[in-house]
Amino acid sequence: MKTNNTQIPSSVTDLLMDECVRRRALEKAVRTRFLSCGYREVSPAGLEFYDTYSSGVGARSQEEMVKTFDSRGRILVLRPEFTTPIARLAATKLRDEALPLRLCYVGTAYANPALKSARQLAEFTQAGVELLGCEGARADAEVVALALTSMRAAGLTDYMVEIGQVDFFKGLMEEAGLDEATTELVRAYVEEKNMLAIELLLRGNGAAEAAIARIRELPMLFGGAEVFARAEKLSAYPKCREALQNLRAIYDALCACGFENFVTIDLGMVHAIGYYTGMIFRGISASFGQPLLSGGRYDGLMRDFGRPLCAVGFAMGLEHVQEALERQAGPAAAPGLDALLVVGDAPLSRAWQRAEALRAQGQSVELCYAADEAEIAALARARRARRVIREEEAL
Amino acid sequence: MTQITIAMAKGRLAEQSMELMEALGIDVSPLKEKSRKLVFESGDGRFRYIMVKPSDVPTYVDHGVADVGIVGKDTLMEENRPLYEMLDLGFGKCRICVCGYAEQEPLKKAHIRVATKYTGIAAQVFATRGSSMEIIKLNGSVELGPVIGLSDVILDIVESGATLRANGLSVIEEICTCSARLVVNRVSLKTKEAAIRPFIEGMRGEVERRKERGV
C-alpha cells in the first residue's frame, strides 16, 4: 500500500526555522500593537460545535468547514475564524465584564480551501480585534485606525484601507423596490464591478430607468473624498443619505488622525451584506494581489447568541501579510546565533555553566560536541554564528 | 510611473485586443515580433504584456501578478474567480449551449450524462435541475460525445453551429452569450488607480466608438 507518511495534505505548510522566526516576529509586532491599544487577548477553543456556525447571520456553508465528531457523535468544527467564538464568549463567560469589551486574538484557523481561489490555505493564522458594545463613527474609525497602524507595525510600507458602507447599497435596493433574490444577483454583480450585467439584469426585470442608472453607477463609486459628492447626487433616499453621513464622519475622523493618504472609499464593496450592518473595510497592499485584512461593523451577530450588542472588528491574514512583506523587501535574514560553544573534552557541567552565563546576558548559545575542526567551522557557518568559543580556552 | 501588467489569452482574442489598444495609441509592437519571449514591454514602459493560455488568464489576475486580463466570458464563468469584470470588449462573441439530438429529448432523462470541457459551468447549470448528472471531462472535439454514445448531451461554446450540423446535432438550450471581457485585479484597481482607470475608460470609449460605427 502506498502511504503518505512523508507528505502533508494540500494547502497546509510547515514553517521552517527562518520563516518561523519571521512569523513569530510578525505575530509579536501585531499583538503588541493590539495590546497597546487596550485590546485584551483571548484564545478561544480550537474545536467548537458545528451548531455555533450553522445558523444566524454568521452562518458558514458546511463545505468550507473542517469537521470531526466527538465521542457522542456530535459534529465539531475546527474553528473557521475568531469573531464567532468571541461573540459566544461575550454572550456567556464575559457577560459580567464592563463594556465596551476590547478583545484581540492571534491564532490558527481552518477551512476547506475553495476549489478555485487564489492562495486560500487550509490552515492559516488570523490576528484581529473586536470592539463590542461601542457604537458610532468614532468607534468605527478607531478600529480602522488600528487596522492601518497594525499594517504599519507589521512592516508594510505601501498599505492602505478601502472603506465602504453596506447600507448605501441596501438603501439603493429598497428605493428601487427590488426583491431579495434580485438584490443578491445585483450584489454579486456590483461586487465584481460588472456594470453591463447589472444593466441587463435590471432591464430584464422591468426596473425603472432612473433606478437602473443609479445602481449602474455604484461599481464606479470608488476613489477619494470626491466619491461622497458623486454618491450624494445619486440618491436622496434616507437610508442612503444616512449611510453616506456615517461614512463621511468615519472618513473625516481618519483624515483628522493623519491617515488621509491611507484611506480610499469604495461604495461598491458589498461582500457579506447579510453579516455587516454598516461600515466595512479591507486592508490592501500594492505588494499583494489579495486583501490582507477585512472587517466592519456587525451589529447583528451578538443577537444570535442571546446578547444583542453592537460590534466592530477586523481580521488580518498573517500568511498573506508575510508574503507581502517578502515581496516588498525580500525575505529578511533571521538573526544568527550569538555563539557556538565547542565543548571539546570538557564535561557538560562546565560547558553548561559557561553557556548559561552568556544566555543570562541575553545571548543565544548552542553547544557543539564535534571535534573535527572542519565540521565545527561548517556548523558555525550554517548557524551564522557571530563567534565560536572553546570551552578549554576558558581555563 | 506605474506599470500595468496585462495578461492576454493567446490567439484571436489577443489579436483583436491589440488592435483595440493600438487605436488608443498604446504600443503593442513588441507583441508582434516573432519571439519565444514570454514577457513583453511597451516601448514607453507603461505596459507589460504576458501571453498565456486563456484558462490561465483569470489565475494570473486573481493572484495579482497581472493587474488586468483580457479573456472570454466563458473562461471567466468556468474559472469563477473573484475579479472585477469591468468591460465587455464586444468581440469574440459566442454562445454557451447544451447540444445533442433534440428529438431524443435528452434533458428529460432522470440521469443526464454531459460531455464538456467546461465542467465548472456544467455543474452550475445542472445543479439546480431535478435530474442527476454525470460530467464527463473532454479536452476537445466534444461533439463526439453524443455521436459516439459517450454522453447524452454536450455543453460547449457555439459560434457558427457548423460542426453541430455536420454531425446531426442541434442546440437544445442556450445558457448564455459570451464575449471578450476586460478583468482587473481587486487590489490593483485601488493601488494603481491613477494608471488603470484611464486605461479602462480609454478602452470603454474605443469599444463604444466602434459600436456606433458598427465595426
What does this entry look like structurally?
The complex is a heterodimer of chains A (395) and B (215). Chain A has 13 helices and 15 strands. Chain A is α/β, with parallel strands linked by helices. Chain A folds into 2 domains: 17-329, BirA Bifunctional Protein, domain 2 (2-Layer Sandwich), CATH 3.30.930.10; 339-394. The mean pLDDT of chain A is 92. Chain B has 9 helices and 11 strands. Chain B has helices spanning 12-23, 29-32, 57-63, 73-79, 119-127, 144-148, 162-166, 188-191, 193-213; strands at 4-9, 39-41, 47-52, 68-72, 84-88, 94-100, 111-116, 132-137, 153-158, 170-178, 180-184. In chain B, strands 2-3-1-4-11-5 form a 6-stranded mixed sheet, sandwiched between helices. Chain B has a 5-stranded mixed sheet with strand order 8-7-9-6-10. The model of chain B has no long low-confidence stretch (mean pLDDT 91). Classes of the chains: A alpha/beta (395), B alpha/beta (215). The A-B interface holds A 116-119, 158, 160, 162, 191-197, 219, 222-223, 264, 266, 284-286, 288-291 and B 59, 62-65, 79-88, 120, 184-193.
